[in-house]
Automatic annotation (TrEMBL):
<feature type="domain" description="PRELI/MSF1">
    <location>
        <begin position="1"/>
        <end position="172"/>
    </location>
</feature>
<protein>
    <submittedName>
        <fullName>PRELI domain containing 3A</fullName>
    </submittedName>
</protein>
<keyword id="KW-0175">Coiled coil</keyword>
<dbReference type="InterPro" id="IPR037365">
    <property type="entry name" value="Slowmo/Ups"/>
</dbReference>
<dbReference type="Pfam" id="PF04707">
    <property type="entry name" value="PRELI"/>
</dbReference>
<feature type="coiled-coil region">
    <location>
        <begin position="157"/>
        <end position="191"/>
    </location>
</feature>
<dbReference type="InterPro" id="IPR006797">
    <property type="entry name" value="PRELI/MSF1_dom"/>
</dbReference>
<dbReference type="GO" id="GO:0005758">
    <property type="term" value="C:mitochondrial intermembrane space"/>
</dbReference>
Length: 208
């Protein structure tokens, strides 16, 4: 068994990071995730959002790992359960593979919380437990897979930054569209009023 862990600080508020995390896929940094299906989503009596998803992924194992494991299969299904608590400002996500379980299991846990000293930042803690089963060189393979997970984690953080930038761009475009619509409506209203104004003045004059 191999345990890998990491901590990262995002320079964005918790709410912003969580919105991005919920819209993380698809993204160009993680092309290995080829499909995401929401199986169930619900709110509990404490107002926490529970989501169960099925991820279709290309694990991208090194050739030597696939050779030792004795499999050429790369498409793997992962079940994921996340809980978002808007009151406590905490998101916890747990995932595990449901294919190739006779050979290897990877259990991951991610927790997003506000930075204890700066509410404009968010702390992400990650942990993965890798277990290779029933073959020799298991420790070696677990270390190789831990390196792959570390690389994918960096890509995942880059992906969140990409999504946040995309969301900010969409928000600015929406604001610009609304302002343009307001300006167009105001201009149209002014034009209609100016066209009707002479007639109103004339009617008022005749009624005097």
């Amino acid at each position: 068994m191999k345990i890998w862990s990491s901590e990262h600080v995002f320079g964005h508020p918790w709410d912003t990071v969580i919105k991005a995390a919920m819209r993380k896929y698809p993204n160009p940094m993680n092309p290995c995730v080829v499909g995401v299906d929401v199986l169930h989503r619900s709110l509990d009596n404490q107002g926490r959002l529970h989501s169960h998803r099925l991820l279709s992924t290309e694990w991208g194992l090194p050739s030597i790992v696939k050779a030792i494991l004795g499999t050429s299969r790369t498409l793997t299904y992962i079940k994921e359960h996340s809980v978002v608590d808007p009151v406590e400002k905490k998101m916890e996500l747990c995932s595990t593979n449901i294919t190739l379980t006779n050979l290897v299991s990877v259990d991951e846990r991610l927790v997003y919380t506000p930075h204890p000293e700066n509410p404009e930042k968010t702390v992400l803690t990650q942990e993965a437990i890798i277990t290779v089963k029933g073959i020799s060189l298991s420790s070696y393979l677990e270390s190789l897979m831990a390196n792959t997970i570390s690389s994918n984690a960096r890509k995942g953080r880059d992906a969140l930054e990409w999504v946040i930038s995309k969301l900010n761009t969409e928000l600015e475009e929406l604001k610009s569209t609304r302002e343009n619509m307001k300006s167009a409506m105001a201009a149209a209203s002014t034009e209609n009023w100016s066209q009707k104004l002479p007639r109103r003045l004339l009617v008022g004059y005749l009624n005097e």
